[in-house]
Write a structure and sequence with these properties.
With 262 residues, this protein is an alpha+beta fold. The chain has 14 helices and 8 strands. The chain folds into 2 domains: 136 residues, D-Maltodextrin-Binding Protein, domain 2, CATH 3.40.190; 116 residues, Glycine betaine-binding periplasmic protein, domain 2 (D-Maltodextrin-Binding Protein, domain 2), CATH 3.40.190. Helices cover 40% and strands 16% of the residues. Strands 1, 2, 3, 6, 7 and 8 form a 6-stranded antiparallel beta sheet that branches. Strands 4-5 form a two-stranded parallel ribbon. Strand 4, helix 5 and strand 5 form a beta-alpha-beta unit. The longest helix has 13 residues. One of its GO terms (cellular component) is ATP-binding cassette (ABC) transporter complex. InterPro entries: ABC_choline_sub-bd (IPR017783), ABC_Gly_betaine_transp_sub-bd (IPR007210). This is ABC-type glycine betaine transport system substrate-binding domain-containing protein.
Amino acid sequence: MLDGLGYSTKQTSASQQIIFAGIRDQRLDLFLGYWNPLMTQTITPFVDAKQVKVLDAPSLQDARATLAVPTYLADKGLKTFADIAKFEKELGGKIYGIEPGSGANTQIKAMISKNQFGLGKFQLVESSEAGMLAAVDRAVRRNEAVVFFGWAPHPMNVNVKMTYLTGSENALGPDEGKATVWTVTAPTYAEQCPNIGRLLSNLTFTAEDESRMMQPLLDHKDAFESAKQWLKDHPQDKKRWLEGVTTFDGKPAAENLQLTTK
């Protein structure tokens, strides 16, 4: 939407530490994906030093991140963290995670090293989000057992009939992995650019809606066309997000948003 409002933008893909350091060093302006509590340990030093600012309210309140299984496996009895060890043979002693160094992988490794839930003999398979999802897709097509790190919002919740495990004993965060997602900016960003500050404050989502928004991107469809279609199909979102916002040259945003493919 920023491009559609006449702003020039650049997106950066990097690790959490590099993103927060980039905001601190004024190389990045904002980050829409601070997951609390998963990323809290990483961001806390930057917040305490007043090098980044977390917006006053979350953009997403019903997020979740914890271990999950295909529902057909839950139906066979793998419903809790304590059940995983009972299925060690079927699982091949593996738990599938995301990229090395992520908060989720660190927490899963801690469970294994402490033999929590009897997982001491298990191996964490580290690769990437895409690599993990490919492994899950392969297992589901073969109706095989697999435990993986799942989260919402994400299209996996639409594409895979999946069940989040319970009984985590806060190993992946409190309340069985329930999380909130926040926007992080440079400390004075809202004062320097109040128009975009309003837009960022307006941007709120539900996990279900955001999972569906992300699906076209996972299918390698054009981001601009996908955004245009979502706003066309959901005018209430467009009105809510752009309330009080203008284009770069000062025109009412809702009537003058121009989404075109770069």
